[in-house]
Amino acid sequence: MIISRRGCLNVAEELFVKGKQDSISGYPIELSEKVFQKVSEGIMITDLSKRILHVNPAFEMVTGFQRDEVIGHSPKILQSGIHGSDFYQKMWAEVNDKGEWQGEIWNRRKNGEIYPEWLNIMAVRDAEGAIRNYCGIFTDLTDRKVAEQELKEMALTDSLTGVSNRYDFSERMKQLLKTSEEYNISHSLLFLDLDRFKQINDSLGHDIGDMLLIEVSKRIRRLIKNKDIIARYGGDEFVIALSAIKHPREAAHLADRIIEALEHPFHLNGEEIYISTSIGISLYPNDGDTTDELLRKADKAMYFSKENGRNQYCFFHDDLQPSSKRLVILESELRKAIEAKTIEMVYQPKVDVRSNRVIGLEALVRWTSEKLGPVSPSEFIPHAESTGLIAPLSEVILERVCEDFIRYDLAKDCGLPVSINISGIHFQQSQFTAVLKQIFEKMNCQPAYFELELTEHTVMNNSHHTAEKLNELKNMGFKISIDDFGTGYSSLSYLHRFPIDFLKIDRSFIKNIHDQKENELIVNAIITMASSLQMEVVAEGAETLEQVQLLQRLGCGIVQGYYYSKPMRPEEIRFFMEEWNIRQEERV
Ligand code: C2E
Ligand code: MG
Ligand code: MG
Fold it and tell me: Could you tell me the domains of the chain?
């Protein structure tokens, strides 16, 4: 049965005014009674002194009161206490004055629960126009309110993580900046981008990626206060408005805590996942007075953090400005270099300190752009990774190493193998092993002469596929080396499942091995651990004799670094080796 609120009111009014006559305005009495009983709106009829005379079943259902409990009482038993007495005074004044009042009101059910209802009160007059009764008809709005709230939340929150979405963020920022101007308050904006999130998504799947985003947002939320705003801004980007700060160091402190909070591994679906974040910070009002400007500058600072090694934060400052221009040029220059294959390789020897023999070379890429001059691989490799250029660039590098290998007869002159750095992004691609195989076949080079260097972060990302791929590469004949070891969090058991030949200790440990006892202990632990797993340890970045001697004492077998040689062009290798061998003979 569909009955409008107005129609229902008429029925109730007539029922009451005319009493149980045989017919009301042509309706048979049973029909009116039926309607009164069946409508879903609650109906309550009172006398002039507002004592309840009559309620319908819907009233009982909504309020929880049985009719016997309310008949003869005042409707005040339903009052929630939310509205003040002036609210009720105004309401009744309008009913008496205009004959009707309607609006939203909060009432209380018998069980104490407060709920919203839409209430329509009518003054019912007799034939002379004097008010005889009041009739209230109401609808429970609880469900609608819940639905409205859900809709509101959907429009304002990010459905995956439950934090604000872009829209809500910019609305709240608008409000924040408006009041800040009046009261001279400072804020800071942190722009976060997860490092290598794409890799996780690509290798472990979007479900894990989504779970990770949820967990990351939970960890960050624990660090911020209610007054602050956190929003998900893009795939793996979050922004935080840290409001009402007294000093920029508060923003730096929060950035530090976020970085630290994400350092602990995430356990998702049986996988142990490591992630880090790069953060850029802008300040209001120093860096701008609109949300857009603050975001733009925090984003720029975030890029800078990424370019400079990730897992860190950086404040926006004017010197960062050209860097975005640089990035644009970098990308187009890199494209040209890949197309024209104008990259070069240099080679750095690795020395077995036990026998004092050169036992291998590490191939390192070099690139001089026409417009930018020499660019470090630490800058352009990550850039190639984030712009999708890494696969074609890696292919050019692999071909060039194979070319050099044959042209300069590297196998004859010095120890083997030649190691090649492999980008994590390239490695994760499904065609990686096939492409590698194809290139080595095409260049007529045997993988047995080569070693692949993968960073610790790369192998840690997805153990299942990594193990499979590494075994495939081993079967093809390549040696496998873990580069920059010690910068991640690989555990002994974790590495045990991979067919690894060499562990290269990150040069940051070697650099301060004499000054920081802690570094010596770490290097010592790595060497002990590696030997128990039958892996050779390579220490990279040794620049002094003292470092080499200490490494030797700690049991490190292979050392690489400026102490022996800087990376050299392939044509220089022959001379280097000749000299090395002469000195060797002199030593003997
Ligand atoms: P990496 O693989 O850890 O390479 C070692 C880096 O340490 C090289 O820097 C090398 O020149 C430098 N180095 C070696 N001995 C010393 C030393 O005694 N002292 C100091 N201070 N540095 C030393 P480079 O060539 O600038 O390469 C930086 C990083 O860029 C590499 O770190 C590697 O991750 C990446 N990279 C370089 N070439 C390639 C490449 O062909 N492909 C890929 N995917 N990445 C590459
Ligand atoms: Mg390397
Ligand atoms: Mg390294």
Answer: 5-146 (3.30.450.20), 157-316 (3.30.70.270), 335-587 (3.20.20.450)
